[in-house]
Amino acid sequence: MSVVGQSVVRTDAAAKVRGGAMYGVDVRFGGMLVGKTLRAGIPHARIVHLDTSAAAKVPGVRAIVTGQDCSRRHGLFQKDQPALAVDRVRYAGEVVAAVAAEDEDAAQEAIERIVVDYEELPGVFDMMAAVAPGAPLIHPDQMSYERAQVTGLVLNPVPDSNISYHFKLRRGDVEAAWSQCDLVVEDTFSTQFVQYAHLEPHVTVALYDAGGVMTLWTSTMGPHTLRDMLADLLQLPQQRVRVITNMVGGGYGSKMYLRAINPAAALLAMKVPNRHVRIVFDREDEFLTCAGRLPTRTTIKTGVKKDGTLVARQSTIYWEKGAYADIGAVIVRNASYCSLGPYRIPHARIDGYLVYTNRQPGGGFRGLGIPQVAWAGEQQVDRVARELGMNPLALRRKNLLGEDDVSVTGERMHRVGLGECLERVATSIGYETPLERTARSGARRGRGLACILKSTLTPTASFGFVKLNNDGSVDVITSAVEHGQGAHTVLAQIAAEELSVPMDKVRCVMPDTSVTPFDRSSTSSRTTFHMGLVVKKASADVRRQLLDMAGAVIEVDPRDLEMRDGAVAVRGAPDRELSYGQVIAKFYGGPGTVLGKGVVNTKPLYDTMNAETGQSSRPSIFWMYAAIGIEAEVDPDTGQLTVTRMAAAADAGKAINPLACVQQIDGSAIMGLGMAMMEEVAFDGGRTLNPTFLDYKIPTTVDMPDTDVIIVESGHDEGPYGAKGIGESALAPVPAALGNAVYDAVGVQVKDLPIRAEKIYRALRASADR
Amino acid sequence: MPVVELTVNERAVRVDVAGHWTLIQLLRDGLGLLGTKEGCGEGSCGACTVLVDGRLTRACLALAVRAAGTRVTTIEGVATDAALHPIQDAFVRHGAIQCGFCTPGLVITAKALLDEHPRPTDHEIREFLSGNFCRCAGYNLILNAVRDAAGLLTEKR
Amino acid sequence: MILRPFEYVESKTVDEAVTALRSGGDDARVIAGGTALVPLMKHSVLRPERLVSIARIPGLADIAPATAGGLSIGGVATHWAVSHAKVVQERSPLLAYACGRVASPTVRSMGTLGGNLCYGESASDPSPALLALRATVRLHGPGGARTVPITEFFTGFYATALHEAEVLTRIDVPAMPAGARWRYLKWTPRAQEDKALVGLAAMLVLDGRRCRLARLAVGGVGASPMVLARAEAALRDHELDEATIARAADAAAGEVEPMDDLQGTAEYRRDMLRVWVRRVVTGLTEERAA
């Protein structure tokens, strides 16, 4: 292969490095109105009265919308979220009104002149309080909400509760199994609300034109999903709703669905036909209105034989969804069924609950719940090892899923790159070599490992075209979003490879739902696999047609023709060749095209997960595996934690662009460190205390350890060239690996994220006092 | 509306601004130079970094009216001709660009770093870039790019 | 997060600035580099209607040697300029270093030393250094000019001794004593790039192990940057052995009223101050003299 498997320079890099790439924030039109949103500021309240009359009088104001402007609700699994708050607000950042004006100052002034009378309601700010009997109900009418099936899942809300979904897995007989174990341990762990902190904020430009077509230029990771949901909300046919996406400045699972910004912009646009309305969220809006990572509380129990064989594991996980259900159920299911770790477990029981509270609604965030469950499960694995007197790596080796093993969800697993990931990170940090326990500074050293498995959204259907132009250049026409993960480069590589053209003759177009066919989203590390296969198939379709056309033109059997370097040639007679453009021109007697189609439908391979047992012979079209090894130091006098070395390994199946894989693995691992060590949205009841980067810290160049990035390639039977997904997996094991390293260093097990120096310090003092 | 006269990327310009605009509004809304990005608006993330009279500046905090009479360099002015500046070229080759939103501010900051420390140590590179967030978190690759660019620039001198 | 309209006054002299401040009353604010003020305005914490710029007043950014080995630093000298100035590096390396630890290079290029002091933030990096150096500040206001010792300048949580319509025009830094050993320790346990949880400036003059001069000041712990007077007294004129240093560290821990916030609890700040006083003083005692 000439281009697949090469670290080809990213096709978007040159424009980006010049400052010439167009992002959502760069979309401009003449006469564009500035839109702004008004946040509730109070976490649970009835809207008694909302008065926009003073706002309407501000010179330059052209439109104002409130919840009264749209009676319908939206929501991926259940339609629980209004376009804007109607009679009730359920979290402090909820949008209650929006304004469009000729300039930003007018919009801001108008927002400040909207008067809202609230009757505060008792709020629920803690998920355990939310599930306790008698808790105030955040969605008292939940049972009457319209529900939909998504990736084989339908909500099963518990009546008269704040629980909108309960995932269950039952395998073997856990209750009987405990008595067969030589050791049983149980722990409870918790994780925090984490901000996406993508540098480009949410932005939407909306236009409702005289033809009744609603167009959105927006930075989203899922243009078609957004289109479909908006069409439903506005009761417009889908072909009259158009979503266009340019370069996206970071997603990580954010910028999905409708949420608040899209209904606000669209409703404003409907009030001012033929005028563009732009809403861009500022960083406070991002911190207060937008989503983040779901906080969790996990109780996990493990039973083993004294030789380290895992017999039974049980987890109960509460997932805080905040005010609206959104994608939450997928996170609960797809992470809960991984919560017992990538091991052979004969007896298993999992209960995962999606819980409403009056806090910010989380969303799907890189790793989709695996970081949270691994934090619990992988630290407990180390604890079990310690209590058995076994090396934690040896314990993992003994139980790790391998080729032909059956997973806890009942699937026979193949091409499991997990073991290689684990071994290579262990080797990289010298896990089995002696460690100088005390550094010259007096800091205590430790090492930790963790490993995970993660699924991808299944079933999905993905579509795309590949178009050959008159000059032999190629357009790849898909809804794949380039949000930094390198999708456009990888897809171009595949087309270039399959059509034997150089990279600089291939372009991936920007998603435009009027033109680029349906794709669910560029999330879940699914784009290389799904859209890659689409492009491969569409390219094969172009090849077939082109060879047929060339055969007709040259009067040769197409089977005797080959494609190379932009030309079709007769095998064995290299002088008898025509460029692709010449084939088209001769076949049509003039200009034309060759249009190939690709469809990838994973439903035939998918086995719906049983709602009572959580068993499925194939719940995911592919599995991602990753492992992290960390060496860290703890200053025993202060608790300060420093990561001195990190190794990150992820199984790509096949690295179509190795450097792009390094980008993803390295980036994921450092993002994982942020979650592990420093990131935390702090709440006081329903109020966010730190909506600013001055007090919400993310990793910078000075936080980053030397990182050894390892790409494992175990192949995949259906993936393009054996590739699967790589964008998320290396993040998930990081917090647990760090927790394990901390224990190894100073004998302190931190159970709630993030691992802060003060927590370690207090734990050390407490154990010293005992 | 005040009129501000300044030099941007070696060109003299006159631009209408609002008296309370920041420099980034002057650049993006006043001059249509969209390469400089606003990531946070509070001076924390570094995406908006430009040079004003050769000094590193957060365009989201600098006032537009103060730019009068100054020489501003934005990302659009870094490549001196059709070819990329060696720092930009190194960023491209080393995979230091993912979503790219932090890239303009980082390139400007890296340029200032190498002007001040032509042979920076790793420690100096990290410290100097510590005020530029990259959430795609490609720091290791960014470090490689800056190291490479330092070698190239020093050769050029 | 946008700025609301304001009147912008570019003062050509200090008197002009004072007049513009005075006539603006509560609605007027000084702007130097803007790195503290503008974010506050963006977050709607402050909404001044008049910004009085002192950034272009001739001479106000000057950094010059002063008599007897000291320094005279104009109020709008940037942290960058102060940390890079040869005369500061030679005469007051503690100050040069502390200014070089402020935030990040870009913020240091814009932010001014005077502005930093007037912000009154506890976790300021230059403030503990200037306290340890026993600097003075020159203030110009409607009532004329006055000099205030830095030790009296920080009066509370983001509060300073500045009167209404006063401008900080100069910081006078006495010479560092001959043979002084110094250190500024900026401790940021939450993230490497963060404001100090403990920002400890220490300067010692030792004669063998006998301490002739001890200056200790800290930011980030209490509501204001402060001198650790009891700790200083516990070191001065003593032989610096382990027990003495421990006593000084205890004294420091006892004389602060630590803050409680997302970065750390009050108890943690107190304990960490004790640890770092002990470590920094021990380290200075054991290193060879400057």
Tell me what the structure shows.
The complex is a heterotrimer of chains A (770), B (157) and C (290). Chain A has 770 residues and is an alpha+beta fold. Chain A has 18 helices and 32 strands. Chain A has a seven-stranded mixed sheet with strand order 3-7-1-15-12-13-14, sandwiched between helices. In chain A, strand 25 (567-570) and strand 26 (573-579) form a beta hairpin. By secondary structure, chain B is an alpha+beta fold. Chain B has five helices and five strands. The mean pLDDT of chain B is 95. Chain B folds into two domains: 3-77, Ubiquitin-like (UB roll); 86-156, [2Fe-2S]-binding domain (DNA polymerase, domain 1, Orthogonal Bundle), CATH 1.10.150.120. The longest helix of chain B has 18 residues, at 139-156. Chain C has 290 residues and is of the alpha+beta class. Chain C has three domains: 7-53, Uridine Diphospho-n-acetylenolpyruvylglucosamine Reductase, domain 2 (2-Layer Sandwich); 63-172, Uridine Diphospho-n-acetylenolpyruvylglucosamine Reductase, domain 3 (2-Layer Sandwich); 182-187 and 194-285, CO dehydrogenase flavoprotein, C-terminal domain (Enolase-like, domain 1). Chain C has helices spanning 14-24, 37-42, 79-84, 86-91, 93-99, 105-110, 113-119, 126-133, 229-235, 242-255, 266-286, and strands spanning 7-10, 28-31, 50-53, 63-65, 71-74, 136-141, 144-149, 154-156, 159-160, 167-173, 181-187, 198-207, 210-219, 226-227. The termini of chain C are far apart. Chains in contact: A-B, A-C, B-C. Chains A and B meet through helix 1, helix 16 and strand 32 of A and helix 2, helix 3, helix 4 and helix 5 of B.
- The computed structural class of chain B is alpha+beta
Sheet with the most strands: spatial strand order of chain B: 2-1-5-3-4
Our estimate of the beta-strand percent of chain C is: 15-25%
End-to-end Cα distance of chain B, whole Å, is 45 Å
The ordered string of helix (H) and strand (E) elements of chain C is EHEHEEEHHHHHHEEEEEEEEEHHH
Largest sheet of chain C: 5 strands, antiparallel
The rounded Rg of chain C comes to 19 Å
> Outline of chain C, from the CA principal axes?
globular
